[in-house]
Each structure stands twice: as C-alpha cells, then as structure tokens.
Amino acid sequence: MPDKKHNFTRLEILSGLLVLMSFVILAGFMALIQGYRPQHESYTYTTNFTNIIGLKNGAEVRFAGMLAGRVTTITPHPEDQSQIQITLDVKPDTPINAASIATIETLSLTAEKHLEVSSGETDAPRLKPGDTINSITKSGAFIEIPDMDGLVGGGEDLIGDLRELLGVEEALEQEAAGEYEMASVTRLTADLRMFLGIQAALQEQAENGGDLPSLTTITKDVRELLGVEEGRTAEEAGEAEFTSLADILNDVDGLFATYEPQLTEILAGVDPILTNTDTLLVEVNDLLKDNRQNIDSAITGLDDLITKLNKELGAMADALKSTLENTDGLTSELAELIENNRPVLEDMINELDSTLLNLDAFMQLLKNQPQSVLWGKPINGRR
User: Fold this and answer.
1) Is 104 exposed, middle or buried (CB count within 10 Å of its CB: 0-12, 13-18, 19+)?
2) DSSP result, 92-143
3) Closest to 133 (Cα-Cα) out of 92, 99, 89, 104
4) Angle between helices 185-196 and 198-208 (to 10 degrees)
5) What is the pTM of this model?
6) Strand-strand pairing, 60-63 and 101-106
7) Pseudo-torsion of CA 144, 150, 154, 160, nearest 10°?
8) Which residues have C-beta within 8 Å of that of residue 361, sequence separation ≥ 6?
9) For residue 133, which of 108, 163, 101, 111 has the smallest C-alpha distance?
10) Following DSSP, what letter does each residue of 23-55 receive, concatenated?
11) 292-325 and 342-368 helices, crossing angle to 10°
C-alpha cells in the first residue's frame, strides 16, 4: 500500500521560504565582504600615495564630500617602489579635473578611511578615464597640516638661507683647509664664560675660598645699590613713599607737561635762527662771488710773492746746509765757530724747512677755500 502523500501546512511552507531567504541574504553579505559590486557604468582613475594610512579595498570615494564611487584595488606601484597605487571607479558624471587633489580622510574618529577627491577649479580640464589624479599624502595625525611636503620643503629652504646668512658652509670649508676654526655652541659658551670671568672666579674660589657670585647675589647687590629695602622700610614706617618705576615715569610726564609751553616757545624760536643763519651764509657766498676777481688777483700776487720767498728761503737753507757739510776749507777759527753753533744752525735749517712747508699749505688752502680769510678756518659744512 503506497505511503499517503504529505500535505505541507502553511507554517511549514513559510518556514522553508524563510530558510531560503536567509541563505540568499548570507550569500549576498559574503559577496559584499569579498568586494563584489553590481556591474554599472563607471570611469576608472588611478592615484598614488606614499602611505595609504589604513585605507581598505572597497572604501568609499567621495568627490567634494559627495559619494561618487569605490576603491577597487590597492597595489604597489609597478614602476615606483616608494608609491602605493590606488585604482578607483566613480560615476561618469563626476567632474574630476586636472586641479583635483586626492587625499585620504575620515568623517569621524570611529569611521573608516575613505578617498576624498577635491572639486578642483572651474576652468581646469576634465581628466579622461585612466588618467592619474594628483594626490597629497598626509601624516595620519589627529590634526593634519595641509601640504606637509611643501611645508617641509619651505623649512629646508629657510634652514639653507639661514646657513648661508651665517656663513656655515664657508666656515666649514675654511676649517677643512686649516685656515679657520669653526665656532660651535660649545666654543661660544666657553668664550662667554671666559668673557664673564666664570673660570677665573671658580679658580679664585678654589684657591682662596669664599662665595662664587650668582644671579641671586648680583640681584641682591643691585637691590642694595638702588636702596630698595631702605625704601620699603621707610614706607612701612610712614617716613617716605616708596618710589616705583611707574611713579618715576609719571614724574617725568608731569615735568614735561609743566615745561611744555617753555619748550614749545624755545623750539619755535629755533626756526627763525636757522633761517637767519641760512640767509647770512647766502649773503657771505654772494659777497665772495662778487669779489671773486679781486680775491683771485690778490691770491695770484700772493702766490708770486710766496714763490719768490720760497726760492730765497730755499737758497738760504741750501747755503747753510752746504756750509755745515763743508767745513774743511774754512779757517780753524771759522770752523770752530760753526761747530760750536752747529745745533743753532741745524735748528735754523729745520725752521726754514717748516716755514716752506707751511707756506705751501697756506697757499693751497687759500686757493681752494678763500673764505678761510674771513672766518679764520676752512668751512667744511653747509655752504
């Protein structure tokens, strides 16, 4: 006798469908974990980083914060071992352009990393599928510094400029050539200690004992020199009021305020004096200009006189020198007289030489600055 056919109840059918749906959901979930995505039209781009900072395959790609696609692969760069190449698929209508910059960001402290692409510039040309997006590798710190590479490069340039300003390279070359001993912080500290007399004070303390002056001791001496303690004691006793720097400044301000009218009056009188001085100098210059011809004639005549006088004085000096040098042909009495008076004659010759030099200097001064005749000294300031 055949088995009786089993009729499934409504509850059993629902239970079976629930089991099948569970298997389908589990399979879909496993596919998502493995990176499977439904096929749809997309554009593929690449970008490179030196550090992906926890970015995972399948991570979101956002364009100016808007969800635009997914990361499809993360692999070492095939040509540059220092770079990590990321391939991403985005929607065809995503306007990635040549000015767009790719960075690795996170929306919160607990959210996963995603690839952020900036909106770039309005006039920048669109990138074609397969092109490489420019990128900036961040440090991964909680607070990011934009353009870390540029900042580091700027710091290196600044250090280079500072080394050039201080002449570090030249000093190193001279030290290598044995021409110069390059200064270091240690040597500068030693020079400063020597300048302040620290070594000498330490040696004197070791030999003779006593206290080595310290900043506290020096401050105490300065306070004693200024009478700070006496001033406070007098103030506490009600004998005087302690003077502070603010009080001194107030006194100075009050002094200037008191004498401000007199100072203003004095300063106002300075301008007329300067004006009158300028006018006087102009009149003197005009006077010299009007009488320039007469002055030139007088200087020319004086020049001739001094030239003639120089000749005669020079001849006299030469004669005296010749007499002193040639005493052999003279009589014994005359030679003895000259020898006895040789110091006097030599002094006379020196005086004649000095007179000739002074006459030349006077003539040059008179030619170049005739106004010295009026003022008694050359005018080297404003004319």
Assistant:
1) buried
2) TT---BTT-EEEEEESSSSSPEEEEE----TTSPBPPTTPEEEE------SS
3) 99
4) 60
5) 0.34
6) unpaired
7) 120
8) none
9) 101
10) HHHHHHHHHHHTT-------EEEEEEES--TT-
11) 160
Q: What is the DSSP string of 358-380?
A: HHHHHHHHHHH-TTHHHHSS---
> Tokens 């493995």 — which residue?
34
pLDDT in tens, 138-184: 866 555 555 556 666 777 788 888 888 877 788 888 888 877 777 77
**What letter represents residue 47's amino acid?**
T
Query: Containing H/E element for 68?
Result: strand 66-76
**Rounded CA separation 222/225 (Å):** 5
Structure tokens at 275: 């004006």
The token pair at 73 is 């692969």
Give tens-digit pLDDT for 322-365.
Answer: 766 666 555 566 666 666 666 776 777 777 777 777 777 777 77
Contacts of 1 (CB under 8 A, 6+ apart): none
Neighbours of 253 (CB within 10 A): 10
Pairwise CA distance, residues 116 & 90, whole Å: 12
Task: Please identify which residue in the block is written with the tokens 């020898």.
Answer: 339
Rounded Cα distance, 377 and 291, in Å: 19
Domain residues of the chain, as ranges?
A: 10-34, 40-139, 291-375
Look up residue 328 and give its two tokens.
């052999």
